[in-house]
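seq:
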Amino acid sequence: MKTKKGFKKGDRIEIIGNIPFQLKDKQKPLLGTVTNVDGFYVLVRPKYARYEAEFYPGEIKHLEK
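struct:
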């Protein structure tokens, strides 16, 4: 399933807004992988993390391939 910005499971992304508390002190850029798309919510597993974070499409962007 794709959202308006075209996110789908497996996409590599950069987190650009609403950074979760656990990632505040991490080195930028914050990268991750889309694990699920639920309506307008995009679930992302940040790189080197064991949890998923929930973002709106405007808070993340695709990485160039």
